[in-house]
Amino acid sequence: MHKEQIEIIPLNSAGKFKLNEKREIILPKIDFKLRTTREDTFEDNKFIIDDYAEALAYYNQENEKLFYVLFAPLPSYKLIFSNQDLFKLNAQELFDFLNKSDNDLHIEDYVGFGSTKFGLDIYAPNFTDDPTSSVEAISFAIKGYFDAIYACKHLDINKLQKM
Q1: Can you say how many angstroms the Cα of residue 112 is from the centroid of all Cα atoms in its chain?
Q2: How much is the average pLDDT of 26-50?
Q3: Are strands 77-81 and 66-71 parallel, antiparallel or unpaired?
Q4: Which one of 29, 40, 144, 158 has the largest count of C-beta atoms within 10 Å of its C-beta?
Q5: Which domains does the chain possess?
Q6: Whole-angstrom Cα distance, residue 68 to residue 38?
């Protein structure tokens, strides 16, 4: 089986998912089958969520620009960052891999860890108890998104997209 390779370019793109690109431009390029689309809100932010079997893509409802993508570990693709297939690593291996280039990783008990430098968040809920646990999802976002989330500060997608 041929696996699609989705390369992460920090704070820019994950394959054909280009951050701050309009939804109308991204949708025709995506090879994944769109299952559903819904609207949601968080704080003052209103967004559109495109649900693919392989990923969730979040767009700012106001300007329909992409700001966040969540990938699940599936056999249909490889999620590549710095020539490494991220889903081949357990949580500790991935932590060590990212920590080589970002020694300021944020660790959140029973959630996982992430890098504001790379705009990546790793969902590995057992990481603090079992460092060799599996990675259940990897998120990728615009600059400043995880800074606000980790600091529990007000998140303003419009402001972040103008930076």
Answers
A1: 13
A2: 94
A3: unpaired
A4: 144
A5: 4-156 (2.60.460)
A6: 15
